[in-house]
Amino acid sequence: MTAKKPTTLATWTDPDAAPELPEAFFQTADRYEGAVLKPRGRPRAASTKEAVKIRLDPDVPAALRASGDGWQTRINDALRASLQLAGKLG
Fold first, then answer.
1. Would you say the C-alpha torsion 71, 72, 73, 79 has a positive or negative sign?
2. How many Cα atoms sit within 13 Å of 63 on the Cβ side?
3. What is the tens place of the pLDDT at every residue in 43-70?
4. 40: nearest Cα among 25, 53, 49, 30
5. Is 15 helix (H, G, I), strand (E, B) or coil?
6. More confidently predicted of 38 and 11
7. What CA–CA distance (Å, rounded) separates 17 from 6?
């Protein structure tokens, strides 16, 4: 019967002999608050927007895009205002 090979090449007897961890290791490490894993990135919004696909006449999106950045927000605001005027949205 053969002897079981160790899982590591050498065992550490002195904790000070452990290799130094590079900064890249800490940049990719998981973060915990107590026993709970803290997710990375931007926190989720209370209400998220829904992606939809609609068909518009070509001049409508062209005019909105020509008005500068934020055109999708502006069309959302215009649709919301239209629905509020029609009494379909509170």
1. positive
2. 7
3. 888 888 899 999 999 999 999 999 999 9
4. 30
5. helix
6. 38
7. 19
Alpha-carbon span 83 to 90, nearest angstrom: 9
Report the pLDDT value the prediction gives residue 1, as an integer from 0 to 100.
60
Contact criterion met (CB below 8 Å) for 58 and 64 = no
Residue 37, beta-bridge partner list: 32
- The amino acid present at 85, given as its one-letter code, is L
Contact 39, 46 (CB under 8 A): no
Residue that is written with structure tokens 């939809």 in the block: 52
DSSP secondary-structure letter at 86?
T
Residue 77, both tokens: 């605001």
* Structure-block tokens of residue 70: 């934020």
Least confident of 34-48, 50-64, 76-90: 34-48
- Of 8 and 87, the structure prediction assigns the larger pLDDT to 87
Partner residues linked to 36 by β-bridges? 33
